[in-house]
Amino acid sequence: MTSGKPMIGLNETQLGIVAPTWFRDTFVNTIGHREAEKMLGLGPQVDAAKAKAIGLVDEAVALEEVFPRAEAAMAKWLAIPGALSFVIFVVKRS
């Protein structure tokens, strides 16, 4: 995620839209029960530093670093034998 002004969160909550069970479960597994409870219940928007601190994003970098860092991260995943096949399987399943 790019650092600075961008925010991330669940604005659906502020509109009265309840997250589906599969999403809630994944969210809890990703950022932990307490943070997920606050994010799902109140729908706050958080900056990149907070998103990184709670585990919602892996990195918070300057705008010009987003693509190079994303490409570096993908290169690590794609270096694993069978990774591309797994990604294709997951995408087709969705």
Measured as a percent range, the helix fraction is 55-70%
Counted by DSSP, the helix tally is: 6
Weakly predicted, low-confidence segments: none
Number of strands: 2
Mean pLDDT: 91
Q: Strand order across the biggest sheet?
A: 1-2
**Global shape:** globular
Largest sheet: 2 strands, antiparallel
> Structural class from helices and strands?
mainly alpha
The CATH architecture designation of the largest domain is: Alpha-Beta Complex
Radius of gyration: 15 Å
List the SSEs and their pairings.
Elements: E1 7-9, H1 11-14, H2 21-31, H3 33-42, E2 45-47, H4 48-54, H5 66-78, H6 83-93
Antiparallel strand pairs: 1-2
Helix pairs in contact: 2-3
Describe the structure.
- With 94 residues, the chain is mainly alpha-helical.
- The protein folds into 2 domains: 1-60, 2-enoyl-CoA Hydratase, Chain A, domain 1 (Alpha-Beta Complex); 64-94, no CATH class.
- 60% of the residues lie in helices and 6% in strands.
- The chain contains 6 helices and 2 strands, in the order βαααβααα.
- Helix 2 (21-31) packs across helix 3.
- The longest helix has 13 residues, at 66-78.
- GO terms for molecular function: delta(3)-delta(2)-enoyl-CoA isomerase activity.
- One of its GO terms (cellular component) is mitochondrion.
- It holds the Pfam family ECH_1.
Put the structure in a nutshell.
The chain is 60% helix and 6% strand.
Question: Which short descriptors sum up this protein?
Answer:
94 residues; mainly alpha; 2-enoyl-CoA Hydratase, Chain A, domain 1; 2 domains; two-stranded antiparallel ribbon; 6 helices; 2 strands; globular; delta(3)-delta(2)-enoyl-CoA isomerase activity; ClpP/crotonase-like_dom_sf
